[in-house]
Amino acid sequence: MIRFLLKNNLSFSNTFHFLVISLCLFQVVTAQEHVAQAPASWYAYGGDAGGNRYVRSDQINSENVMDLKPAWTFRTGELGQNSSIAEKLTFEATPIFFDNRLYLSTSYGKVFALDPTSGTELWSYDPKIDRNASFSELTSRGVSSWTDPDLHADEACKKCIVLGTIHAKLIKLDAITGKPCKNFGKKGVVDLYEGVFVAEKGDYQTTSPPAIYQDLAITGSSIGDNFNADTGNGSVRAFSLRTGKLVWSWDPLAEARSTFKGPVGAANAWSVLSVDVARDLVFVPTGSASPDFYGGYRPGDNRYANSVVALKASTGQLVWHFQTVHHDLWDYDVAAQPALVEIRKDGKTIPAVVQATKTGNLFVLHRETGEPIYPIEERTVPQSDIPGEETAPTQPFSSLPNLMGQVPLTAATVWGKTPEERQKNARFIAKFRNEGLFTPPSVQGSVLYPGNGSGTNWGSVSYDVENQLLIANTCRFATLVELFKQDEFDRKRADSKGFEVSRQRGAPYAMRRRTMIGESGTLMNPPPWGTLAAVNLSTGQLEWEIALGTSEDGLSGLPNAGGSIVTAGGLVFIAATFDKKFRAFSSADGTVLWETELPRCGIATPMSYVDKNGKQFVVIAAGGHGKMGPEIGDFLMAFSL
């Protein structure tokens, strides 16, 4: 049922990703504000540049969604053939709908253009990534679109597709032909290894689509941050879409480097960035400084790590930031795309950014200043007993409903399929340090609940613009983390069946961790292990919350990855769970209105568009997930009435 949790490496940190919708009834202006789109456009990964994942079409609605049927299926052919790391293969992509075509990518960077009505392939491009190379992640969440306002309609690369790849290349393609744009970089390719410190090439990647602002492509990076203390530079960089030349670079750790006592890296932005074109702002979600579970070399809050950061999109200048976790010791990266929304509150319309987190906190901030729209409180948290570790004395908590429920994992709440298993699990967790949220890692072993892949991850959130409803799915599980001295590494690794073991090279402590699972193969924390919820951002109230997914033995609420979209037709579409189901819920109350079984699990975010014939489609990638366990596949499925 949850076979993926038994795998050694459950770092959802860089595995999760976003898909979205922003369909317009008449004309949609792209993030570049230059090009009139088709009647309904999903031109960016999150639907629009701000990641609302809102579909303005109501053609498919709560009255007729039960009539939704498969319209077409496209298979990419990518099943990890001849790959030395095929067991990591994912298909997390969300297609974009741009210039009346669909565009998507595979984990090995192959790009497809499809006819949106039939799903027929129009062209494909293959960057020919070395399949014998080792990569930390085998993921591509999608591509971006750009139209050059200075070129005539019949010129090559007037309309473009832009993507980043796992071998750290930024590629620009002609959207009509799929051919590289020769004037960009070197024959259409920019090498992202150049100009930045990279510890190991396979650990420095681009797994999310670049953000587009005017004629700039802005990209972060995915960094394997468990293996080395100094794992590489987490700079966010902007490149000219005309030439491929670097325009600006922002290093999240630049200000703090003088305080470091040893090697430190990362704080990178591996997830999806958001852009407010009118305000010349790009919103950057950053991760932890490295290594994830030891911070003795990086005293203080590690400012700008684990933050949503607003930069001036044209120059990279810092405007404001808000830190969601101080001095991260738990791998609580900011994994969700910042959602740019407008909130009607107290008679005012407020431009806001919503940052969902792995801890279940929802932080709602004024888009221009970073000031909280709903109060945020600093609360005292447990302190580390590791010599040299300076734990943050407090952590921020939002006054909005916490999406994780915050039921502590104790002997009284521990889960098991039988009373006997519950008793065993209770005795097991009693061995470890366990003081609730923000329990620091220890040599004794610490229960981290939520675990590093919990809460809202790369699937992010969707936002019902009309009804002010923020829709979020969460995953709930606990992780056991143990630190040990480097001279114990070989012994611990040999005696660590079921654990992920990481050297954290350059730090005094190595690490091992595992998902907390009982003898029956089920999680030790109480179900539901996955939920879907709606929060009214006008009132701050939780409108509804349901268990998401059903196991073969009838348990409700499953681990999940991927995200949702919400429509003007009163629907929330989401797959994400490991039961292979794709569902439509009522956005008003969370009632299931439609479901179908996919050929593989849909560990991705769906999208929707209206084709040139006026027909609305809903599309989801059904590719399973090699790294998390569900059988891999290469299916892209479209549904319509």
Give a quick rundown of the structure:
The protein is mainly β and 641 residues long.
Fold and architecture overview:
With 641 residues, this protein is mainly beta. It contains two helices and 40 strands. A hairpin with a 6-residue loop joins strand 5 (111-114) and strand 6 (121-125). The two termini are 32 Å apart.
Q: What is the average per-residue confidence, as pLDDT, rounded to a whole number?
A: 92
Instruction: List low-confidence stretches.
Output: 1-39
Radius of gyration, in angstroms, nearest whole number = 23 Å
Report the sheet with the most strands, covering strand number, pairing sense and barrel closure: 5 strands, mixed
The main sheet orders its strands as 1-34-35-36-37
Helix content: under 10%
Oligomer type: single chain
Q: State the total count of DSSP E strands.
A: 40
Structural class: mainly beta
In percent, how much strand structure appears in the residues? Answer: 25-35%
